[in-house]
Write a structure and sequence with these properties.
eight-stranded parallel β-barrel; TIM Barrel; 14% strand; alpha/beta; 8 helices; globular; 32% helix
């Protein structure tokens, strides 16, 4: 069975953020990840990691103003300076917290922007971030996010991400393979995992529909876990799902419960 990291942005939300570290350790996790730690002092997070013998394996670059609709800055040429500032902030946190991977959100395509210009901007910014990450021993990740949950998001398919990675003039760019997003975009998940494995730097999971824990939807997670073992995937799998009920109770899927398929319907989660 692969090794799992608790996403503390979505799990244990019945607790204040800094109390979720102890809850993750009590639930048997050795590692955590989070989307945006920036509302909290990095030194306070470091203490929670140390107190609970946890490692943080992933965080995101700042996404801009989330409440105003920002979902990343990297594809927007008008926000070049903001993007560069966001990289420096993320690296300050990642360095203090010993985080080995940071995810660069692509962002929503600006209205009326030419796709080619957005791609050029994104590629330029990804290369810039990767160059800064490399000397610190940090991998830069890019993640396709489905356009049902996040309409207009620039990077939405695994093939598109692999094309960006191949075009980068830097070998420190890797794929963040989110099984939920791949499924929602109609991709053949096992085939894509086999194809993309050499460039996969991190995996995340949630079931569909609903973006809840494995076993609540139609994705064949026992088969995917077996495949990742077969492929000798050595990285972490981030549990980036919204618990259908109590977080701890919902973790029984890790013990191999029945994951019978439910009727397939569209992915309609309000946020990715």
């Amino acid at each position: 069975m692969p090794k799992f990291a608790a996403n503390l942005t979505l799990l244990f939300t019945e607790l204040p953020f800094l109390d979720r570290f102890a809850a993750a350790r009590a639930a048997g996790f050795d590692a955590v990840e989070c989307q945006f730690p920036y509302d909290h002092n990095a030194a306070d997070i470091r203490r929670r990691l140390d107190d609970n013998d946890l490692r943080m394996v992933l965080l995101n670059l700042p996404a801009g103003d989330w409440q105003a609709g920002d979902r990343g800055l990297a594809c927007d040429p008008r926000r070049h300076r903001e993007f560069r500032d966001s990289v420096h902030m993320a690296l300050e946190y990642a360095t203090l917290l010993d985080v080995p991977r940071v995810h660069c959100l692509a962002g929503i395509m600006p209205p009326g922007m030419d796709l080619r210009r957005a791609r050029e901007t994104y590629l330029f910014n990804v290369e810039h971030a990767a160059r800064l990450c490399g000397p610190r021993g940090i991998r830069l990740l890019i993640e396709p996010i489905n356009t049902i949950d996040m309409p207009g998001y620039f990077l939405s398919r695994t093939e598109q991400a692999l094309d960006i990675i191949a075009a980068c003039d830097n070998d420190n760019v890797f794929l963040q393979a989110d099984i939920y997003h791949m499924h929602c975009m109609g991709e053949d998940v096992p085939a894509m995992l086999r194809r993309a494995l050499p460039r996969i730097g991190h995996v995340q999971l949630a079931d569909a529909p609903g973006r809840h824990e494995p076993g609540t939807g139609v994705i064949d997670y026992p088969g995917i876990f077996a495949l990742l073992d077969e492929l000798d995937y050595q990285g972490w799998i981030g549990c980036e799902y919204r618990p259908r009920g109590d977080t701890a109770a919902g973790l029984r899927w890790r013990d191999g419960p029945s994951m019978a398929a439910m009727p397939d319907i569209a992915c309609l989660d309000p946020a990715a």
